[in-house]
Amino acid sequence: MHRSKALFQNLPTPPKAEKRPVTDTRHGITRTDDYAWLRADNWQAMFKDPSLLDAEIRAHLEAENAYMEAALGDTTDLQKTLFAEMKGRIKEDDSSVPMKDGPFAYGTLYVTGGEQAHYFRTSRDGGEQQVLLNGDREAEGKDYFRLSGIDHCSDHSLGIWGYDDKGSEYFTLRVRNLATGEDLPDVIENTAGGGVWAPDGKSFFYTLQDENHRPSKVFHHILGEPQSADRLVYEETDPGFFMGVGGSLLDDVIYIDIHDHETSEYRLLSTTDLTAAPALVAAREEGVEYSMTEGGDIFYILTNDGGAKDFKIMAAPFDAPGKENWVEVVPHEPGRLILSHMAYARHLVWLERREGLPRIVIMDRASGEEHAIAFDEEAYSLGLQGAAEYETDVIRFSYSSMTTPSQLFDYNMTTRERVLLKTQEVPSGHNPDDYVTRRVMAPAPDGERVPVSLLYRKDTPLDGSAPCLLYGYGAYGITIPASFSTNTLSLADRGFVYAIAHIRGGKDKGFAWYENGKMEHKENTFRDFIAAADHLVAEGFTSYDKIIAEGGSAGGMLMGAVANMAPEKFAGIIAAVPFVDVLTTMLDDTLPLTPPEWPEWGNPIESDEEYRWIAAYSPYDNVAERPYPPLLAISGLTDPRVTYWEPTKWIARLRERAPAAGPFLLKTNMAAGHGGKSGRFQRLEEIAFEYAFAIKVAGRT
């Protein structure tokens, strides 16, 4: 019995999924899946209408929810306390600082008690707020509702807004008259969530999601016409590529961005001829990435072409942006990872990361002179918002650390003057001096040093007695920022050390950090996370019987892998929407994300070697009789990214193969998708639920 199991007494008998063996043979290897039946055959239709879920599957999910509630029923009061604390740190009637754009400034606000954002505008220099879109009103009567924002046309008369009311990420677009607040008759369904206006405001472009939930087509919609009459602009026939459509600050061009996780291609549509075929910039070349921003008569291109692993910035003429005309502007520097770039009339701006810490760099386009915006804390986060206008010297950025609430600045790129616009308010009070933020380096088995960001109260004893929530992700090159979170204070105030392991698979230490945590190197991600746990124990921050591991999505796969590899090193595990049935999913090319994700994980259909890589770590395939700690898995019924059946099957197999371990708990949100519930306070309820599990397992209150 795991040492934490004693905390869960007198539980009812857990649900037992019936075993219905299905065999699959690939590359001479036969696998048997006893729980494949939990995958709904009609999943495409069910994502749009959850009532179509098979009754037997629904009954099993509801039984799992009932068992989970029995196991965690004693945390109900704690969940309410945590929720009240978290809500008390949020300014309910909060408002963003509006961003200037033409005669107006646009922003968002929340009202007291409201769950959804309201989008508003004022005159450029301030004044009365005009609410353009009231998210709370639009969400009335819906179990789930998520806005994709509102985007105004060039003359500010109309706005495209989108919503998803199932959690399946099929967005419906509407067009609103911004003066009257009335919606036009136009209704565009099954989109990726946004539209890009043509300069005249009489039409827009959008991407359509196909039946397998892939944005495979770009359409041009003319206002007043039915969706069936929309013109197909471009179709991507390779299911391995994502596609998006965007616009430029100068309204000169429509970008069609086609990419997977390591290769990209752009096609451009000049807004002077909306009927023309999109022009190819540089044909896709495996492993070569590039992205574009307009700079008047030139394009600036961020790329890793030519072996620039940590990226460089090139320039090319607006009328001839092909690769043969690319000229270097910002050279490649190993260890200086350029993350994104923006261009304005007189300045080029980019966000970079060195040694795990971000900087904003500004270049004067005329002189080439550069200067940087940086900060001094051991670990911090920067957000580059830029500007909504091309003719500007002022950009906007945000700064925070794990102890410092978010600060929003306007920055004059010419005078280098920094103006503090807003500091995040914590209504219930927050004294940064009560807390410590640190960054330590954990030695990995192969000698690499893994950054770990820490937050804890100054009075927390560092003698191994403190519980720890250790968070990790480690995929797709995504870096988890060391930013301020009001929610984690509820853990720190209970004596927890809150830790983020910046493991391989992210780009925390450059592009190579990502490459060495994907494909055949994926197990580095898991070993790094375990190394972080080992280091925190060795340095007295915590002990193994007090570490609760947490990760979501690809980070949920991390949770499944470390549970198999080192279950004795964790007191509990929280796996949110966990990608745990990796091999089965990567063998199913009908699922939304499978073909685009082969460059991240491998293609087990085509490659025997890649099949074996994945089979070696896929959490579902490697469950065995081990001393697993208590484990909480969370899923969403209409989640198109990590389908509900992955954690459902995983929990069933854990119970079957490790009956003395656990307990293994599954919570399925029956009216939500990948991100959980959509409202800002509804989301806090889910975080309070997860933290209550962690606190219970740690033996705290």
From TrEMBL:
Organism lineage: Bacteria, Pseudomonadati, Pseudomonadota, Alphaproteobacteria, Hyphomicrobiales
Q: Does the keyword Protease apply?
A: yes
Recorded GO terms, molecular function? serine-type endopeptidase activity
Q: What Gene3D superfamilies does this protein's entry cite? A: alpha/beta hydrolase, Prolyl oligopeptidase, N-terminal domain
**Region: Disordered, residue numbers:** 1-25
User: Keyword Methyltransferase, does the record have it?
Assistant: no
Q: What is this protein called?
A: S9 family peptidase
Peptidase S9A N-terminal domain location: 14-423
User: Where is each Peptidase S9 prolyl oligopeptidase catalytic domain found?
Assistant: 483-699
